[in-house]
Design a protein that fits this description.
- This is YolD-like protein.
- The structure is a single chain.
- By secondary structure, this protein is α+β, with helices and mostly antiparallel strands.
- It has a domain of about 80 residues: SH3 type barrels.
- The longest helix has 16 residues.
- The termini are far apart.
């Protein structure tokens, strides 16, 4: 009894005389998925990324921060280590993130309204929400 394809099932594999042999990697690449919507995944990730809203401080907290900045300015030569928590606006969307920077203060620039740390980081005074350290204990 003959079955379908019995006439070709045992023939040798065809090798082209005019085309070079394709490597397994190149052959697999033909079947790999392609991104029909380039940038779509990045846009979805960016949309899903969460940001914090800026906290508006009341007058009492602004006064506390102002007093602490005066204490730091008076003892700046002692190079006290402090922790400043401030708001960093997000460059791509509304909101931002709160970060805590622990370092020593190099200078408080009243004109530019920034606190400059020893590592060169400039922190806008208006973005500061808390200042902590051993000197306030």
């Amino acid at each position: 009894m003959t079955r379908a394809y019995d006439d070709i099932i045992n023939l040798p594999h065809h090798i082209s005389a005019t085309r070079p042999h394709m490597t397994a990697i190149d052959r697999a690449a033909q079947f790999s998925p392609f991104a029909a919507l380039t940038g779509y995944d990045a846009a979805v990730k960016e949309t899903a990324r969460l940001t914090d809203e800026r906290i508006e401080l009341d007058e009492y907290m602004k006064e506390v921060l102002s007093h602490r900045l005066q204490i730091i300015a008076g003892r700046i030569k002692e190079h006290p280590e402090i922790a400043i928590t401030c708001f960093q606006p997000d460059e791509k969307k509304n909101g931002g993130a709160y970060v805590t920077i622990i370092s020593t203060v190099k200078k408080i620039d009243e004109y530019e309204r920034v606190v400059i740390m020893d590592d060169g980081t400039a922190i806008p005074i208006d973005e500061i929400i808390s200042i902590d350290g051993q000197m306030f204990a």
